[in-house]
Design brief:
The chain has a two-stranded parallel ribbon with strand order 1-2. The N and C termini lie far apart (77 Å). The chain has helices at residues 5-13, 28-37, 72-78, and strands at 21-23, 43-45. Strand 1, helix 2 and strand 2 form a beta-alpha-beta unit. It is built from 3 helices and 2 strands, in the order H-E-H-E-H. By secondary structure, it is mainly α. The protein is elongated, with a radius of gyration of 19 Å.
Amino acid sequence: MRGGVDEAITFVNEREKPLAMYVFTDDDGTRERFERETSAGMLVFGTPVLHIAAHELPFGGVGASGMGAFHGRQSLETFSHRKSVFDMPMS
């Protein structure tokens, strides 16, 4: 294995926040570190791309990888605009 957990976390944090980050480990300590020490639109452990099929999870980016969250209710809220209307009678 080239590098280690510290190097991987540094590599991620020195760049723009990724849309999704895939970490392949069974080690609870490593998983906790990635959760605590990195930021991404989605953090996935043990499988690539499968999270897209989980419609109950919002999917979206952070920073340059995009804003908002999509899937299910999150899509409706992301692409909707709540318009405020104030109506005061003139007489």
